[in-house]
Amino acid sequence: MCQKTTTFAGSACILAARLLVAALLLGGFMGSLRAQDDDKVFRVFLFAGQSNMVGSDSKVQDIHLFPPFAGLEKPQAAVKFSYCIGREDKLKSDGFVPLQPVDGVVGPELSFARQVTQNLKAPIVILKCAAGGTHLGGDWNPDLPSGFKLYPLALDFFRAALASLDQKKIKYRIEGFLWHQGENDMFVTEYRDSYGKNLKNFVARWRRDLGTPDLKFFIGELCTKTVWGMDNRANMYAISLGQREVVDADPLVYFVPTSHVGVEIGGGTGLHYHYGTLGQLEHGVNYADAYLRTIGKGQKNARPLLVWPYAKGSKVKLFVLAGHRNMEGERAFVQDLKGLKGKAALHEDNNKIAFKYSLGNYQVSDGFEPLGPSGCYDTFGPELSFGKALARKLPDNIAIAKFTHSGSQIIDWTPAGSEAKSRNLYQQFLTFVRDTMQELVARGHEVELAGIFYHLGENDMSFGPYRKQAVAWLASIVTKSREDLGLPDLKWFVSQQPPTREQGLDKIDVTSELKRLAAKDPKIIRLEAFDLPGQELQIVLSTEGIVALGELLALGYLKQH
What we know:
alpha/beta, Rossmann fold, 16 helices, 18% strand
């Protein structure tokens, strides 16, 4: 520290200070120049995997149906794109083209690129090599590639594309490797049981062969919302354990949840193996968000409840919503509310109703927020119209808490759970309810748990073994939740949409079973949701249907109340 003991010392101190300031200013200036220079370096992203990386069963012409993704059918001229897609008959770009759909399908790279470029100044390059129905244990095996021998093919393809950038004197940095694969390995015992070991080797070989020892990998979860999430539950769980094994051991490998994305609604039982159009668009956003988090960008916007809406010491009625795809609001978009008469205001935050939520653990509120749209991808659930309808009729203080998992089935909610232990939800759900009640108590309120509102009739209805057990599973959840919460008279309001119509499945009369359960237990209130608008497809409700579902739930409570 400088001390003013003599004139010389004082002058020296001043000079030193000025030199320090100059150095700091120069350093800051140079740092700014370096940052600007770095913003000119192209970020290269490598996409690889099987059919859900290709974009199978999606349709470019359907993009307009999903408002948050409007315009992605058009080329993104600022993004360089090179691809080699397919098995026997490969689609190739033969060099770089503007990023655009290939062969009329929607790949995750379309929404990924838009999300990244909106948050990153630097230009980006996307290289994609993917083929449906391929194995990590065989086709993608770096040591002993078999079948379509995709590892050496992809390596040559990526190297050639990078060499092309070098030839054009384009500065670039390989920023991430996006991998979505595993569905086919689960059908081969050897590949399934070795998935973790094979994935670890796969990651190491890419880093070595590309000369990028710190390359980040983003590993996409297999989607549990497809039919395989039920009839191949144990196999999918085994693959997930292999993925987690690598993610947990390597700080530069990141797990990307995808079980909450949309899934194509096909013919027959209404389920599919592929994400389809909406799912692929959301799939790409998931990867983009995962990458952006690694560079400190793309943080969630806070929605604080600035003024607590209830007088201290007053009583609060807590309404808990729970369920799967439709309770989450998979296909309800805030942009569509403008087209519904009298519903446009639902997209505005309601600061008079405290709202707390956990959406599959991938979107969780920071305590209570104002009631408003909270879903991923500009979506919302029935809570908006539910809260509005209740507030119109009830003089009481109302709080709403929502716990959902869009990729779950009823078995995941049961106290016993299933062999796929990471998918068990019962204890998480109970903890969520308890914590929510305790938070209200801590604020000085008496809390009445007015009821749990659970929506039935989605994926489980399309798979015979689950459909047979659906009502028995529901009964076990109701009974145990009352016991564990110490509320023997807790009301469960169970809304039921039309079960999937399909020959063979129709013989399992889940509607009559639920009626019998409700007749035996007067605290289970069955709400028939068979005539909701906005259900052009089996299983899922669109915006209009989700709004109507919320109003139906509120009416069911008000009639009982």
